[in-house]
Amino acid sequence: MAQMTMIQAITNALDLELGRDDKILVFGEDVGHNGGVFRATEGLQQKHGVNRVFDTPLAESGIAGLAVGLATQGFRPVPEIQFFGFVFEAMDQVVSQAARIRYRSGGRFNSPITFRAPFGGGVKTPELHSDSLEGLLVQSPGIKVVIPSTPYDAKGLLISSIRDNDPVFFLEHMKLYRSIREEVPDEAYTVPLGQARIAREGKDLTVVTYGAMVHTAVKAADEWAKLKGIQAEVIDLRTVSPIDIETIVTSVKKTHRAVVLQEAQRSAGVGAEVIAQINEHALYYLEGPVLRITPPDTVYPFATIEDEWLPSAKRVLSGLDKVMTL
Questions:
Q1: Which of 181, 215, 228, 221 is nearest to 201 (CA)?
Q2: Are 38 and 177 in contact (CB under 8 A)?
Q3: Which residue from 239, 118, 269 is spatially nearest to 293, judged by alpha carbons?
Q4: 288 burial level (CB within 10 Å; 0-12, 13-18, 19+)
Q5: Model confidence over 30-72: pLDDT tens digits?
Q6: Any idea what the Cα angle at residue 307 is, between residues 302 and 309, rounded to 5°?
Q7: Quick check: helix, strand or coil at residue 263?
């Protein structure tokens, strides 16, 4: 078992799956010889060959369209959208084709595609690179959306995604690529899709979040416990479509209070869906309304004010205090 960063865990997962199944193909902009803009595919072309790991033109619509065609012919494509903010160029192929092909073909075809894309704030990228657009995909039936927060989960969830017979969008937060390390098994293993994990045990309040905000929430909860002796439970969704509502409801029934934290803008996102489901399934267990901590409903800001726009541990602490007094 080795210490790995998230980017190393992702590379390792791709390497193992390419070696396991010759129907798996990895392709995208600069993923071949250069190993991708973040080096997530570094060394894979040299090991598995140019027919299995290859570069494409700078055309997200073409990348996604190629993936759909290959999927119908028995392949398991793993295309990379170089940054999630560029997904709009591929939305027709993703939503109108990949997500619907099993339904429209009466089950004759499926779409075992794993779209990979980096995203997320806190790294001072140029415009259109950091946007959290997962809400667009969550609104689209037929697509699973996975967002790991740790190297261990990244490897296991990516392997599960590649082996899944439905299209999966696997989103990789750029701030987490090399900022944390943990022990990751050398061999292949899976982490189930659609199953949340308890990132921090607690009894007084439930915080539901995902991606890089898991670490922000745990930091705030640890500080809160030291300052006030109040224990917050932090749930890492891991998969935002489908959402593991059972784990959330079980926690809310125990703590009776809830906060939802996300990096995406406030309106109509994963957080809003989580709150709706808590109200549907656990309303009578709540001692106050569910609080939502998010950035404002504005376009993603330029790097100079990015840190003020993103939810911080200080803002989360303020939210936790507020919920306890509602």
A1: 221
A2: yes
A3: 269
A4: middle
A5: 999 999 999 999 999 999 999 999 999 999 999 999 999 999 9
A6: 70
A7: coil
**pLDDT tens, residue by residue, 76-131:** 999 999 999 999 999 999 999 999 999 999 999 999 999 999 999 999 999 989 99
Tokens describing residue 128:
């259109």
Dig out the tokens for 290 from the structure. 């569910």
Residues contacting residue 28 through CB under 8 Å, at least 6 positions apart = 36, 55, 56, 63, 79, 80, 81, 82, 116
* Cβ–Cβ < 8 Å for 151, 181: yes
Catalytic, 256? Answer no
Q: Helix axis angle, 245-255 relative to 270-282, nearest 10°?
A: 60
Which of 129, 173, 256, 281 is catalytic? The answer is 129
**Burial class for 302, CB neighbours closer than 10 Å (0-12, 13-18, 19+):** exposed
CA 221 to chain centre: 22
Taking the C-alpha atoms of residue 306 and residue 310, their distance in angstroms, rounded to an integer, is: 6
